[in-house]
Specification:
2 domains
Length: about 210
Amino acid sequence: MPKLDDDIDALFKLPLTEFVGARKALAARLKQNGFVSEAEGVKALAKPSISAWTVNQLHWRHREAFDELIATGQRFRKAQATGKMVNMREALDARREALSRLSDLATEALRDAGHNPSLDTLRRISTTLEALSVATSLSDRPTLGRLTEDIDPPGFDSLGSFAPSAGITKRAAEPLHASPSKRAVTASSKAQEAAAEASRQKERQARI
């Protein structure tokens, strides 16, 4: 039902405080019109967490910036397949810039909606955005714009495939007075680096 898809998309575009009421109204309308199974499906839709809601708003309101982040992951994988270090470095730099831009937009979206852009919330947003950017296919990620919860960080294998080799890039030092959104991106990136290092240590031990 194309129209139902549009109605569901509209639910996830709403302010978070309006989600439950609108979901109930949509389910009631569907049931009244004889679409019982569809109504049950709508009733089962979970209310997004504040961080998932924010990522949804980035998808709906800032599609160009959102799509750019997804594209950086695709460009990196292509560069990695060809082994061109320059292209890999460019893709990683573009990814950091895209994450930083989206973190700033997330802060604005939260404030505009009357929510607190806490460091923890921004960190969870950045983690979800990173997970989306390293997904290798559409089947590896949930429906964009309809997230209901945070996406777990990628596993060691995914992190290893996306992390640059030694010498490709230098770790950027976090500014002394970095904004919460910048600190969230930096903290999430450090978590990825730590996971990648743990994976390398595990591989070295396996060879002993």
